[in-house]
């Protein structure tokens, strides 16, 4: 008689590992902003998104021991001892690509500048074309990282309802939240049958056929919900990674979380991103993960001018600028295109022209909410002037609490200034 012997199923470690957990553990590497933290596992890679660096980051993540339970970590350690960790890493990278978390460009090697910043040679001589292949985080990967950040932020806020942008106005709609009123031309024809028939019966009495007139029509009321166009002005001047603190990466995470919130909960809203430094440029949200700190100065005026042009294209009830910065205005674009720079103190010319741009925002009905990551006395005074001019809000916060303040402001829409 033929016998069948069964062995214990040990499973495939590649399939058992949660790709989302691995992506989250790699987020500091994937969202690197150029800050060389001595406490980061990935500091020597310089944020260079090469395939070789991805392998090294994944190796450190797997061997660090804080991602998996004890049993799985033992299996990983055993594979490392048996020299099989390289095969595991290659299979995980292939799975990340198959599940569309990252894409690879193996056709072109890294640029010469990339070889100087973050290229890992490990004593193997000049890097091959394969090891210098580039990778990019996909929209799916960015959306997941934004979701994780948003979930963490909302968890720290306690109970929070996504809701919609509520106002004090009433409108006619499908969702009932108020009484009924007489129909007016242009209203959504969501008839209150009881009130309409009651009005006709009060005039005509109990007789058939019942004559309905225009004045009998009543419609249900619902809370009016407005749409909002938001521009996030993100300071990427060099000061955002100076003074022993990374302020740019937390700001990037918050912008990604805000993008996920707007896309999933406020489909009528729009969100744009403007980076400002010596100058300013609009950046697609899909490119946010790859953004790093730029030139040294802070051209706040140019960022406001670009934000106004973006908001002018939006036909929304509310328009606002969310400005995240840690420094005073220190640069100005002159009429001939040259950049005027002033590194010391609050330059009167730069401050005057920047406040003139704030006044233009006010005249256009644009609110400016400022999130400051510094608290210099002169800077506080400047922010207070901006807040008073445009009737916005100022939050003096830290990289650790930035997300909480920004999410609370966006969700609650309370009229208050926090100093």
Description:
The chain has 419 residues and is of the alpha/beta class. It folds into three domains: 13-137, no CATH class; 144-164 and 226-412, von Willebrand factor, type A domain (Rossmann fold); 168-224, no CATH class. The protein is 39% helix and 16% strand. The chain has 14 helices and 14 strands. It has helices at residues 13-16, 19-25, 27-30, 51-64, 70-81, 85-98, 112-116, 139-157, 193-204, 248-265, 300-312, 348-363, 377-390, 402-412, and strands at residues 102-105, 134-137, 166-171, 180-182, 218-220, 222-225, 228-235, 270-276, 280-282, 318-325, 331-333, 339-341, 366-372, 393-396. The strands form five sheets. Strands 9-8-7-10-13-14 form a six-stranded mixed β-sheet, with helices on both faces. It has a two-stranded antiparallel sheet with strand order 1-2. Helix 8 crosses helix 10.
């Amino acid at each position: 008689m033929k016998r069948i012997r069964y062995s214990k199923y040990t499973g495939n470690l590649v399939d058992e590992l949660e790709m989302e957990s691995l992506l989250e553990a790699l987020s500091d590497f994937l969202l690197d902003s150029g800050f060389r933290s001595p406490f980061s596992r990935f500091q020597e890679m310089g944020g260079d998104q090469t395939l070789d660096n991805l392998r090294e980051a994944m190796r450190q993540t797997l061997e660090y021991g804080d991602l998996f339970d004890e049993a799985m970590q033992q299996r990983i350690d055993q594979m490392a001892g048996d020299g099989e960790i390289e095969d595991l890493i290659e299979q995980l990278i292939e799975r990340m690509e198959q599940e569309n978390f990252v894409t690879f460009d193996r056709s072109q090697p890294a640029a010469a500048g990339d070889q100087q910043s973050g290229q890992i040679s490990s004593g193997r001589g000049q890097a091959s074309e394969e090891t210098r292949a580039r990778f990019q985080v996909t929209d799916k990967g960015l959306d997941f990282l934004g979701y994780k950040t948003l979930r963490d932020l909302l968890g720290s806020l306690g109970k929070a309802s996504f809701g919609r942008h509520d106002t004090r106005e009433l409108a006619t709609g499908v969702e009932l939240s108020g009484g009924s009123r007489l129909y007016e031309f242009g209203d959504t024809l969501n008839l209150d049958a009881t009130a309409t028939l009651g009005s006709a019966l009060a005039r005509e009495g109990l007789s058939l056929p019942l004559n309905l007139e225009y004045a009998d029509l009543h419609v249900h009321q619902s809370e009016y919900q407005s749409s909002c166009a938001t521009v996030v002005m993100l300071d990427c001047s060099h000061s955002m990674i100076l003074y022993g603190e990374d302020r740019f990466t937390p700001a990037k995470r918050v912008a990604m979380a805000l993008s996920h919130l707007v896309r999933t909960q406020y489909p009528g809203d729009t969100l744009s991103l403007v980076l400002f430094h010596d100058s300013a440029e609009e950046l697609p949200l899909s490119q946010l993960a790859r953004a790093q700190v730029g030139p040294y100065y802070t051209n706040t005026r140019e960022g406001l001018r670009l934000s106004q042009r973006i908001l002018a294209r939006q036909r929304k009830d509310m328009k606002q600028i969310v400005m995240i910065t840690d420094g005073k205005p220190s640069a100005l674009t002159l009429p001939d295109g040259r950049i005027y720079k002033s590194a010391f103190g609050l330059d009167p010319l730069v401050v005057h022209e920047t406040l003139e741009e704030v006044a233009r925002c006010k005249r256009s009905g644009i609110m400016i909410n400022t999130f400051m990551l510094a608290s210099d006395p002169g800077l506080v005074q400047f922010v207070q002037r901006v807040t008073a001019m445009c009737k916005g809000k100022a939050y003096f916060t830290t990289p650790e609490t930035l997300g909480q303040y920004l999410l609370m402001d966006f969700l609650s829409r309370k009229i208050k200034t926090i100093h």
